[in-house]
Structure formats: C-alpha cells, structure tokens
Predict the 3D structure of the following.
Amino acid sequence: MTASPPPSDPANDNIRAIIDLERKAQARARWPDRISDAISAFVGSLWFVLVHLAAFTGWALWNALAPVTLRFDPYPYGLLTFIVSMEGVLIATFVLIAQNRMAAQSDRRDHLNLQVDLLAEQEMTLMLRMLRRLCERFDVQPDTAEETRAAKLGEETNVYELMQSLERELPGTETDGSADSSRPGVERKV
C-alpha cells in the first residue's frame, strides 16, 4: 500500500512560485544591471551618508586648518564642488538605470497579475453559468434581485469597454486614443 503525498498548501505553493520568479529575474539580470543595483543600494544607505559627512568634514577641516602649503583645495572648495557634481551625475544615472529595471519588472508583474485576474474572472463567469444551470435543473428559484445580478455577472466581460469607461469617468484621465474604440463587441482574449 502506497501512501499518498500530503496535500499541498496553496499559500506555500504561491510563495515558492513567487520566489522562483524573483530568482529567475535576478539570474537574467546583466552585469551592468547588477552593478547599478549595487551602487543604488549603497547610495540609498545610511553608510553612504556617513561616509560623505566624514569625507566632507575632513576635507573642509584639512583645507581650513592644515598648514597653508599642504592645503590642496582652499575655500570655497572648487575641487570638492567639481567632484561632488561629477558624483551626483553618476549617481543619478545609476539610480535611473536601477529604476528603469524595476519599472520593467513591475510592468511584467502587472501583466502577470492582469492575466491571472482575467483568468479568474473567466472561471467565475463559467462557475456562475454552471450554477444557474444546476439551479434550473433542480428547480431552485433564486431571489429576483439575485437572479438579475447573477445574469449580469454571468455575461462575458468586455475589457475594452471597461477600459473606455474608466478613461471617460476617472478624473484626470485623458483619452489618448489608446483604447481601440473600433472594437466595441470584441470579447476579451486571454
């Protein structure tokens, strides 16, 4: 007699799937992306601030208190200003690279989320239709308000119409023509 495997835990399965997706995304990252991520992480840390405070304080003190012959950047610290300006340009570039990569990753997640939402909506529509047929077969009469609502929810959802309604109704949303109004009767495709 063989023992059946224990039932899987959906929450743990989902966590493992998400971790797997994240690991694969990190493995696909190119070396420039990894470098810019590491630099952005360091720049956004308290250590970065502390190192800069110490360096700037040391620079100013040295150039103010050291013997005149050893001062390499007297007040108003033109060399320090130049170095900090160059550093700012480079840091901004690395941060933008990291943000672009995070935005692309966020877009991929949003597309996956939309796909899952559309599949869940299709499944629920199918379940409602099947439930209505069962109720009809066993002569179960639902409440009139429930029946009307169930009939409406049992219809296919037209994503294009929903998108156009949102664009019309949400304040601050401009209709830019991206919603394909030539497809009013198109069923959603998954």
In short: DSSP finds six helices and no strands in the chain.
